[in-house]
Design a protein that fits this description.
The chain is mostly helical. The chain has eight helices and no strands. α4 runs antiparallel to α5 (about 105-115).
Amino acid sequence: MATKAKSESTPKSAPAPAPATAQHTPLAATFAKAVKLVDSGKHPEAVKALEALIQEAQAAGDWAVKRRAQVYLALSESKVHPAKAVAADPVTEIQACLNRRDTDEAIKMAEKALKSHPTAGSLHYLKAVAFAQAENAEASAESLKKAMELDADLVFQWHMEPDFNPIRKSPLFAFTEGR
């Protein structure tokens, strides 16, 4: 069943007046200028403009502009003061070598780190793990003994570490029994 289309024209209502959008407020104009500074790579200038804008938005109670300005400020500040790359600590570097089975490099790095940190039990332990991977039971036992003298709790890691399995039953590791 077909319906008849209305032949009467429906009266069109007048368009509603445009709400006061961000484009029409003084803060929005300032915000747009600050964003242009960010987009053009003028980050030091953008930081100053955005800091002033945040203060103005705070005073005016315009939280939306304030929040958006804070986001752009964080971006600009990260460009002005980029984070410095942090060198990985020796323990992390040695562990990465061990994970790659690069035992020679791990031993070299452990020996270098131990020159400046001779009382770090964890470094002696990692050196013992590297020697264990190389199946050098004598050197591994010597390093493990030193590690456990410095940190007795490392015995628990030793018991759980699969890299020691090929040499664990060696009489050189008798000092770990009963611990």
